[in-house]
Design a protein that fits this description.
alpha/beta, Rossmann fold, nine-stranded mixed sheet, 9 helices, globular
């Protein structure tokens, strides 16, 4: 079903779902290395030398323009076929960009939600990552252009994302995809949307999801419940605490929503029955601890979890493939896990 503008997302308590005995994979590496990876040092140096205006001091439009200009860490790859189309959304058209790596059919389907704090980001800022993911996982990638805050606060972006999930489950086969192998994925804010869509799909008897791929997701109630990593990594490592406060103020405009499990999946009382999860976290990321906590919560609920922690990395590092060797390795690893499903 499509949602009307007046729909409200209420927290739901799930009970009596079968718990699965699973073997989980957790990276034993320390939470934070002694220093950032040497490949990251020139990138952070350039960022500091550019004297970018802090996000918290500009308008959303200015922040978006700056993000678009500085997000091109990697080159987009050539893909067999790329095209854009609109689907009917809860408040108008939702644009999807489809990446098809070959003319093969029955490809795994990756529904991808871009990062950017729910305020920034676009199909273009994540074109390189989506094209690389399509080629390496040999998957049909559907990148979703969901509505952004503050013009469209929570739950607008989630409504668009869940609508795209429903569409993909019904129509991906016409694009060469296999709806039986449907992955919801995203980085940062997009990881939050992927996790929330997984919750919604269980609670509303929605499309079956094969796996959720969560790259350094914000899954707690943000600055209202800060983890230790907010203080430890709150300044100097790309994503800063002041940025998170700015994003939260734009996205959460009704204080009561801060305790909504679809906004903050870590608040959900029951995570059993959710799709298998791959969770990626980084040592120098303010969001590190909530990502680790969510991986642990999922495993404790019987969900199959592969947690991949990179102690010398920063927030957003996977998008730096081609420049950062560890990002390259991570991208290959998560792509292989999807392709082997």
């Amino acid at each position: 079903m499509l949602y009307s503008p007046t729909d409200t997302f209420y927290p739901v308590v799930r009970v009596s779902l079968d718990r699965r005995m699973t073997e989980n994979t957790f990276d034993p590496a320390p939470r934070r290395a002694d220093s950032v990876d040497s490949d990251l040092e020139p990138i952070l140096s350039v960022m500091n030398q550019q004297s970018m205006v802090p996000i918290s001091s500009v308008t959303p439009a200015q922040a978006r323009e700056q993000f678009e200009a500085t997000s091109g860490f990697a080159e987009s790859e050539s893909v067999h076929e790329i095209h854009e189309f609109d689907i009917s959304g809860p408040a108008g058209p939702v644009t999807i960009r489809a990446y098809r790596p070959s003319s093969a059919t029955s490809l795994p389907v990756i529904l991808y939600f871009h990062g950017g704090g729910f305020v920034l980001g676009s199909l273009d800022t994540h074109d390189a990552l989506c094209s690389a993911l399509s080629n390496r996982a040999e998957a049909l990638v559907l990148s979703v252009d969901y509505r952004l805050a503050p013009e469209h606060p929570f739950p607008a972006g989630l409504r668009d994302s869940y609508t795209a999930l429903q569409w993909a489950a019904t129509h991906a086969e016409s694009l060469g995809g296999d709806p039986e192998t449907l992955v919801v994925a995203g980085d940062s804010a997009g990881g939050n949307l992927a996790a929330a869509c997984s919750l919604l799909s269980i609670d509303r008897d929605g499309p079956p999801i094969d796996r959720q791929l969560l790259l350094y997701p914000p899954v707690a109630s943000g600055v209202a419940d800060p983890h230790e990593s907010y203080d430890e990594n709150g300044d100097g490592y790309f994503l800063e605490r002041a940025d998170m406060e700015w994003f939260s103020a734009a996205y959460i405009q009704d204080p009561i929503q801060a305790r909504n499990e679809y906004l903050s999946p870590l608040l959900a009382r029951d995570l059993s029955g959710l799709p298998a999860a791959t969770v990626v976290t980084a040592g120098f990321d303010p969001l590190r601890d909530e990502g680790i906590a969510y991986a642990n919560r999922l495993a404790g609920a019987g969900v199959s979890v592969s947690h991949r922690h990179y102690p010398a990395m920063i927030h957003g590092f996977v998008s730096m493939f081609g420049m950062v060797a560890t990002a390259e390795d991570c991208l290959d690893s998560i792509s292989e896990s999807i392709g082997n499903k």
